[in-house]
Amino acid sequence: MRLRIFWFVVEFFACRAVGRAMPRVRAAFAMRFRRCDARASASGGRGGGGVGRRRGASAGDDACYVDGSVDASGAASGVGVWYTFGHHLNFAGSCARKSCDINAVEMCAVFAALVRHPRDEKLAVMSDSRYVCKCVEIIARGDVDEIAVNAVTVLTAFVLSKRREKTLIAKVAAHKGGAHTANARADQLALVGSRASEEASMVGFIPRATFESAGFFQNFSRVLKALWRREVVAEVARFYAAREDPFGNGCLDGTGVSEARKKSHRDVYENVQRLENRTKLERPRPFSDDCSVTDVLALDCEMVGVGEGGVESMLAQVCVINEYGNTVYLSYSRAYKTVTDYRTHVSGILPRHVEGSSAREFADVKRDVAELIKGRIVVGHALENDFSALQLHHPREDTRDTAKWRPLLRPPHFRKPRRLRHLARDFCALSIQCGDAHDPAEDALAALAIYRKFRNNWEGQLASAKAGRSL
Hints:
Elements: H1 2-18, H2 23-30, E1 36-39, E2 63-70, E3 77-82, E4 91-94, H3 102-116, E5 123-127, H4 130-141, H5 151-162, E6 167-171, H6 182-194, H7 199-202, H8 216-227, H9 230-241, H10 259-269, E7 296-306, E8 312-322, E9 327-333, E10 339-341, H11 344-347, H12 351-355, E11 359-360, H13 362-373, E12 377-380, H14 383-390, E13 399-401, H15 420-428, H16 440-453, H17 455-470
Parallel strand pairs: 1-6, 2-5, 5-6, 7-12, 9-11, 12-13
Antiparallel strand pairs: 2-3, 3-4, 7-8, 7-10, 8-9
Subcellular location: Nucleus
Signal peptide: 1-21
GO molecular function, one term: nucleic acid binding
């Protein structure tokens, strides 16, 4: 197997060196990928029928979604491969100390999917990385001098050239609904992989994936050295000979190889599962007696209607609680427009609340809330309505909206938000909005309880996305 890899690396670098001047060399190299269809966009690409004719694919036995993840510190990275729930080829692995370049990590994810899938079966690999799909598309044309070189890119090309059935590498939108919902599962697996500790046993078959910028012969020797490792050769030999089926370690049903891994899988899986076997619902209550102003606050507002028909909303009451569930600010806001609909059946607001002495001027309420939430994370449900009523703007990176976070959206397409009372009931066994009107403190506490339940995974996803954008 080492000899086969060696000659492929020679051909790869030879095509890279003389392919432009000698079109026959480039054409001969491209013939290796005649069964490959690579698409860097929804249309276009090269290749024939079979899997390659589909614009997209649902995850299943012949289609998978892949993703890479780099943590906020840049010290750890991971890959995820998702087929469907409980599939034996689902995989999560760490790429730490191999690469923390997001493009290289995304290529590692594609390689992990290709080398572990039986080469005699059709396969569609869906990635949200335009770089990866464009890179494979260029390789399939034989124009390898147009791409940056690293060991995992060369080995991915080798595995592609040895597949006996149609192979599609396609670009999909990142974390969208419909047929692409499985991409979110791949991202979750990549996060699990980036936090894993058993790196040597999990991803020994992934070569070092840092991009090389040295001279031609130095790049050649470094790539060959990375591909010469025993674990890499053994995995490629297993793929080539098809002696045995690989078995994944990233199933979201908790089939990890360690208790820590199983817990990570359970934590991720709970993000999209309702709370079961708990029929008794409780009213929300604070988590402690701490009444300090914390770095995480939850906010909820009640509005009244103004203008013709009372369609336009105006602030009537605002409540801000700390991360322990205790109120740190509560105030009515004096009406600065004529109220045409008090919405009492929903808001509980009466004329005396916005016109009496207990109501403060809107400008004062707005100033108080702005000073309170500045530089802090704000949790809530449909916060754009609250900020609109307050006439405030809060940075997106400091907002945690339970009506926007994708795992909490309405299945199966995960596009539309769910009602707060349904989220509180299904995920936290809480009962809210039981009376005739809403209580802003209770609503804010319910949103906070949901955020606290999923805080680790929520913050992990945001940190990973931020790290990916910064590279």
